[in-house]
Structure formats: C-alpha cells, structure tokens
Amino acid sequence: MRLRQIQNTPVAVTELGFGASVIGNLYRVTPADDATAAVDAAWDAGIRYFDTAPHYGLGLSELRLGAALRHRPRDEYVISSKVGRLLVPNEEPHGVDTEGFVVRDDLRRQWDFSRDGVLRSIEDTLERTGLDRLDIVYLHDPDDHWRQAAEEAMPTLAELRDQGVIGAIGAGMNQSAMLARFLRETAADIVMLAGRYTLLDQSALDDVLPAAQEHGKSAVAVGVFNSGLLSRDRPAEGMKYDYQEAPPELVARALAIAEVCATHGTTLPAAAMAFPHTHPSIINVTLGMRTPEQVGRNVELHDQHIPDGLWDDLRAQGLIRSDVPAERGRGRE
After folding, report:
1. Which end of the chain has the smaller Cβ count within 10 Å, N or C?
2. Spatial distance between the Cα atoms of 69 and 79, rounded to a whole number of angstroms
C-alpha cells in the first residue's frame, strides 16, 4: 500500500488507515478476539497507520490496539493518539459510559489542554498501549478551548516533536475553520479533518485545505461516509448524515451521485473513499474497522479504480463543487 509523507516531517502513512474507535466498543460491544483479528487483517492487507485516542472506550481502544501491535516491528507502522481529554476516576459512576461507548464508566473524561495535561495524557497513553513512543499526536476536539490548546498544548507538542519524542503534531476536529487556524497560526504539521471534504460536503475548500497548501502541511480525512449516507451503493431514507437522520434532499443528492458512479463502473462508497485524495494536501483516509470482514471490504473499496472522468461528470452536473481539483492527489503504479 502506497506511503504518503506528512510534509516537512519524517513520518509517512499508508493511504488507508485503521481507525480504532470502534474496537473501543463504539455503539456496541466488539469482542476482544474480533478487535485483534481486525488489526491483524489490516496488517496483512498492508495498512501501517493506526489511529486511536483515550476518548475511545475510556482507554479500551488504546489497550486493545497496543496489545495487537505490540509484537509487530515498531519501525514498520505509525500510530497516532490524541490529547485534551484526560481519563480520571469517576466518583459517581452509573454503570455504562454515556458518550457512545459500551464500557463501564469507572473513569470519566476531563478536558485539559494544559502543558501538564498534555504530558500526563501522553504518559497514560504509552502505559495503556505498552508502546515506547507515539508517531503522531493530535489535539482532540479543542473547539471550546482554542486559547489553551493553541497557547499551551500545541507548544508542548512542538517541544516534544523538536526533541524527537514525537514525529508529527496536529489537531483533529469535525469543523474545518479552526483547523485552518491551527495550520496558519501554530506549529501543527497535520490535521485530522472529519466529514468536511466528502462527496456531500466540500466546505474544507474554503479554509483548511488552502491553509495546508499555503503552509506546506498535510491532512488526514476521516468521516468520509458522513456517518453512513455514503457507505452503501444505494442510499436510502433513514440513513445517517453527521450523526443525525439524513435530510431527504441529501439522500436524493447521494442517490444522484451513486447513479453517476454506476455509469463509470464504480460504486458510491468506493468513490467516497477515493474523493478526498483528489486534493493534494490529503494524504490518507482513515476508516473505523471492527472486524476482519470490514477490513477486507474497505481494502477492496480502496483498491477499486476510480476514473478521473467521474469527478469531471460530478462537477459538470453540479453534484460536487466546481473548484474541486481536477487532478488526482493519489496515483497508483
């Protein structure tokens, strides 16, 4: 699987990444054996970028991912985690986590983008994963914490990067405007862009992607299915878009895109995975993968040939923005 370099850093990631939120029991229980088997299947398929966070399953994702990778050659893969949510003892547990993960709530999340919070979070992550280092560290959802994130957390990460402790630093969010500020105003090397450069939402063309190009920085795309609406060959009523039921007009637009995909011999989910790579600053698409079967499907979709004419037709029919780059950022030998 092709490697892409995070600009101006020593870190390179495979074009397809393994998102480990789901093996932290996102929305439903994932048996431990399935989680390990999913990581093994990703490795066998050539995936060498793995993303996790303390938030995912109150540390369960980090525990499972670290255990699954521990016997692998450390220099052969890239792992990223995140800071901003410290895990602390929960004095008033109710039994089950209330933020989407089916795990006990003996711990709770505490927002903290201070220098001490960042250092403690990284130390805790290394302990949970059992690894000796992290390759990429992102600030996780700092939407309501710009000042502390930009003035304390990011300089702390930059210090660790400059010491060689971390390979690359950045921020990950569901919005693009603040990510653009991180690229323009801080030492961030890379951003994790969730849902804002997809077949249904190209708003990142207004801010974060121009900032990445201007400053020679990179982006990872996540949420490329927009919570599910782009995940099937034929979208249907009742499917989700950005975590809520998709409005009828978006379902109709997704169906129209699916029809154009079919005329080019491909499918909507394959096109949704390939689309972010139309922009040269996007070097990776990361997807949640719960089982070996999901890994296999995602790798198959990633490997599908997407003709450049598809993007031309979608632009011509007004189904994607006219300023979507004409050339592909990704190529295959």
Report:
1. C
2. 10
Q: For residue 91, count other CB atoms closer than 10 A to its CB.
A: 6
d(CA 279, CA 201) in angstroms, rounded, equals: 14
Question: Quick one: average pLDDT of 118-131?
Answer: 98
Q: How many CA atoms lie within 13 A of 89 on its CB side?
A: 1
Q: How far apart are CA 145 and CA 161, in angstroms?
A: 22
Rounded CA-CA distance 68/82 in Å is 19
Identify the CATH number of the domain in which residue 121 sits: 3.20.20.100
Which tokens hold the place of 95? 């039994």
| 323 located within any domain | no
Give the model's confidence band at 328: pLDDT under 50 very low, under 70 low, under 90 confident, else very high. Answer: low
Q: Which residue range is the domain that position 68 belongs to?
A: 3-227+269-306
Q: What angle do CA 35, 121, 30 make, to 5 degrees?
A: 15
Please say whether the beta carbons of 270 and 301 come within 8 A.
Answer: yes
142: confidence class by pLDDT, cuts 50, 70, 90:
very high
Q: Is 145 among the domain residues?
A: yes
Evaluate whether residue 119 is within a structural domain: yes
Residue 333 has what pLDDT? 27
* pTM over cut 0.85: yes
* Amino acid (1-letter code) at residue 297: R
Structure confidence at residue 331 (pLDDT): 40
DSSP 325: -
Output 213 or 328, whichever has higher pLDDT.
213
CA angle 157/163/166 to nearest 5° reads 50
In angstroms, rounded to a whole number, what is the distance separating the alpha carbons of residues 131 and 69? 9
- Token look-up 């975590």 returns 243
Rg (CA), the chain: 19
Residue 135, token pair as written in the block: 């390759």
Catalytic status, residue 77: no
Catalytic residue among 49, 56, 138, 197: 56
- Structural domain count, the chain: 1
Q: Note whether residue 322 is domain-resident.
A: no
